[in-house]
Every structure is written in C-alpha cells, then in structure tokens.
Amino acid sequence: MFDSASTGRLENGLSGTGAFVYENSYWLVVISFLWTIGSLFVVTIGPVTLGAYVAIRNLDSDRNRVEPRRVLAVVRRQFVPATVFGLLPPLFLSISAGYLYSLSGGITAIRLGLGLATFYTGLYLSLVMMPTFVALADGQTGGEAVRTGVRWVAANPTIAMLVGLLTLGVLLVTVVFSVAFVLLYAGAAFSIQVRLVDDVGET
Known about the structure:
By secondary structure, this protein is mostly helical. The protein has 10 helices and no strands. α3 packs antiparallel against α4 (45-59) and α6 runs antiparallel to α7 (109-137). The chain is globular.
C-alpha cells in the first residue's frame, strides 16, 4: 500500500521520537493535560494546539525545557489564524457526519456525494494542518503557514497519510484508557507530528 522509500523516511523520522518522548515524559504529560483542559471549549482547540507545538519545539531545542513566556507570546501573536485553522477540520468532519447520518433515512446521490466530499475535505485539512501548525510555531504568518502546509502534504502525500494514521492510532489507544488520553495523547501525537515534519521537510 505504501512505497518503501516513504516507509524508510518515516522510520528514520520516528527513530529518535521514542527516545524524545521517554526523556521528556514529565513535560509531555503536562502538555497533554493542559491541551485536554484547553480543548474542552472547542473554539480554543487551535490556540492550545499551537501552544503544545511551541512547547514541544522548546523541548526539542538546545534549551531542552518549556519556556511558558515564549509559548504564550507565540499563541497571542498567532491567536486568530490558530483559532481558524483549528476549527476547519472538525467543522468539515462534523458536516460530513451529519450528511452520512442522514443516509439512514434514505440514500440519495446528493447526500452521499456531499458527505464524501466534506469528509475528504476534512481529512485533507487535518493532514495540511500538521505542517501548518509547525510553521505557525516557527513564526510564519497564517497565509505563509497554510501554504507551507499545502506544499508539505503535496510533496509527501504518503508520509502525511502515515503520520495521520499514527496520530489516529495514538488517539484510539489512549481513548481506550481515558486517563491515558488526558495524560499522553497530545504530548505523544504532537511530538510525532512536529519531529516528522521537521525531519522529512518538503522534499
């Protein structure tokens, strides 16, 4: 299903992520907990996701520690684009769920087509938002960041899909144990995304 070159690049990108997660487990638990609390309001999911990305960037740098003032400064500066970008994938996926649920009352070509189209759009936006939020964390403007995200997914479609599947896998495993979701999901999933986007690049 996936070509060996993409799989190899994914394995290389993942090679150090396990050690990174283990060595920074304390901070990643804190990040996961704060992300879960912050995401409860739904409209704040973008800013808190950006904050988690910036915090992981801090840990994955020479400073090797989370700097709250730096995190808050980036979130304040990028609050509007982060809010918009954070809401787009769940918006389209929710619309898709509504159309697909309506099929239980009778299948029509229009409902099925709209359901599949909005599902595909939500899925595509979910993949694009991973490199987009990394770019926002690096200080790019909203327009520059989303263009970076689109280029990255276009250059690495297989790896983008694999990272999406890994993120879904982490979500499903941690949801089974509700406490694990609160304490592990965001830290583990976002660490994978941030490090792989960096390691793979746009080539």
